[in-house]
């Protein structure tokens, strides 16, 4: 038998090593809708507890918004539960194209095609559009799904140092003989919360005749004055060739993603992208709700405006308390701890105080870069943030990390 007792024991040993190294990831069970206040069972079998959620991608607070839930019910009644097919066979409903058109208008691009997730969009777009005559030059901190998508493509994979425009320019100069050069970046980098220098990237792209790809999953819906994303925030609307983004974060929080941009590239994805051709279409219930989400965020910027104010309050409070933060102006506010065990210990202590915030550590972030990544939502009221801030300060005092930087924290706890 291939899966022998020896095989089983080998895997058990690996899992135990992960646990001993402080890298074991534990799941918590949420027993309520996703919101600022959630009910959680943790650890498994423990009594349920109401806590404030400080680490969801629910940036606009739309995951359980009454109008979105109502639209989902209506979509379920009107178009059914699932499509049981891929798009090009019999998996396309009128509401799928309606959503694509709304996203195109919102993002101010030429066309859009839906995918089951943004991970699928990133897995499909590179292979559909590029080949071994081309080069992809990616920021070294791009999302893992972008790296996986690039690996599936026969184009040469290159990289530049994070947000280092001089290094990017040297790479563009090096590959002038390639058929196509494509600069690949996140719009907002999900672990650190900093934004790509899209204005400078677009200038370099035009200078060296390159294309620009942006994964805007952590900014679509709220970054920029109208919430269109990093390309609005950086003043480069119309200059980005390929945008991928998700409906699973600010835009409703369920599932689904898309490729949006130049019409020919979108059509290439319809014709050749494997996750599009071989995965079931997005369920009607999700599409109907997402259509309502786009309506809500185009009618008013009230939610993104509230999110911006919440973010300023939260970041200022943590900075004043003396936490070591990553610079940025997005709702992703990482509290740097550098030690994996410390990030988990602090997460458990916060939970005891009624705050749900997860420790991030290798391999989710690089070795020695452990943190608690806090994420702010428009669903948070001031009392949520004040309670969370008090809890963070209490736990920070317990471990004596307030006012201490990287070097001091590493000396105390190691990497």
Notes on the protein architecture:
The protein is an alpha/beta fold. The protein has 2 domains: 25-54 and 301-413, Aspartate Aminotransferase, domain 1; 66-299, Aspartate Aminotransferase, domain 2, CATH 3.40.640. 44% of the residues lie in helices and 15% in strands. It has 16 helices and 14 strands. It has helices at residues 5-20, 66-79, 87-90, 94-107, 118-129, 144-151, 165-174, 198-207, 230-233, 263-272, 274-278, 284-299, 302-321, 340-352, 382-398, 406-413, and strands spanning 29-30, 37-41, 48-53, 111-115, 135-139, 156-160, 181-186, 211-215, 242-246, 257-261, 332-336, 355-356, 359-360, 371-375. A 7-stranded mixed sheet has the order 4-10-9-8-7-5-6, sandwiched between helices. Strand 1 (29-30) and strand 2 form a beta hairpin. It is globular. The two termini are 41 Å apart. The model has no long low-confidence stretch (mean pLDDT 97).
The low-confidence parts are none
CATH class of the largest domain: Alpha Beta
Order of helices and strands: HEEEHHHEHEHEHEHEHEEHHHHEHEEEHH
Examine the secondary-structure arrangement and name the CATH architecture of the largest domain. Answer: 3-Layer(aba) Sandwich
Tell me what portion of residues adopts beta-strand conformation. Answer: 15-25%
Report the average pLDDT across residues: 97
How far apart, in Å, are the first and last alpha carbons?
Answer: 41 Å
Structural class: alpha/beta
CATH superfamily of the largest domain: Type I PLP-dependent aspartate aminotransferase-like (Major domain)
> Globular, elongated, flat, extended or rod-shaped: what is the shape?
globular
Instruction: Please report the number of helical segments.
Output: 16
Number of strands: 14
How much is the radius of gyration in Å? Answer: 22 Å
The third-level CATH topology of the largest domain is: Aspartate Aminotransferase, domain 2
The total domain count is: 2
Fraction in helix:
40-55%
Report the sheet with the most strands, covering strand number, pairing sense and barrel closure. Answer: 7 strands, mixed
Order the strands across the largest sheet as they lie in space.
4-10-9-8-7-5-6
